[in-house]
Design a protein that fits this description.
By secondary structure, the protein is mainly beta. It has a single domain, classed as Immunoglobulin-like, CATH 2.60.40. It has one helix and nine strands; from the N terminus they run αβββββββββ. The strands form two sheets. Strands 1, 2, 5, 7 and 9 form a five-stranded mixed sheet that branches. It has a four-stranded antiparallel sheet with strand order 4-3-6-8, with no helix packed on it.
Length: 129
């Protein structure tokens, strides 16, 4: 009788321990989203990006999302790269601002709406007002 009671008690204890454990959540993959932009200075004042134009450093590339705005300055090659933590919902709006105190204006395009991830760099042209 004592052996039966001990077995029953051990069995109930093990069931209780199993009921108290929580399932380990399955890890989900969260990938970041990447955007790039390039700024050009319209040296020949034709309003188009062409071989005569030069890269514009220190312009600010902005990515506008429902969860906020992310930005980065262009480097000496006029390129900027923005990493947004996690996935994003499209459409996404990107734009570029002239370098601070440069007096330059954004010629074309003023903003760009990305409908999907393409891997392409958004190009922006700046000139004198």
């Amino acid at each position: 009788m004592m052996k039966l009671r001990l077995t029953f008690t051990l069995l109930l204890g093990m069931l209780g321990l199993m009921a108290c454990t929580t399932a380990t959540p399955t890890p989900t993959s969260v990938s970041d989203s990447f955007f790039s932009g390039q700024a050009w200075l319209d040296v020949n004042t034709n309003g188009q990006i062409d071989a005569q134009d030069i890269p514009l450093p220190q312009a600010t590339f902005l990515v506008r999302l429902s969860k906020g705005e992310f930005g980065a300055n262009t480097d000496s090659s006029g390129k900027a790269f923005v990493t947004v933590p996690g996935p994003v919902e499209y459409p996404v709006i990107v734009t570029m601002q002239a370098p601070k105190d440069s007096g330059l204006v954004l010629l074309e395009p003023s903003i760009r709406t990305l409908q999907a991830a393409t891997g392409e760099s958004s190009q922006f042209l700046f000139g004198q007002p």
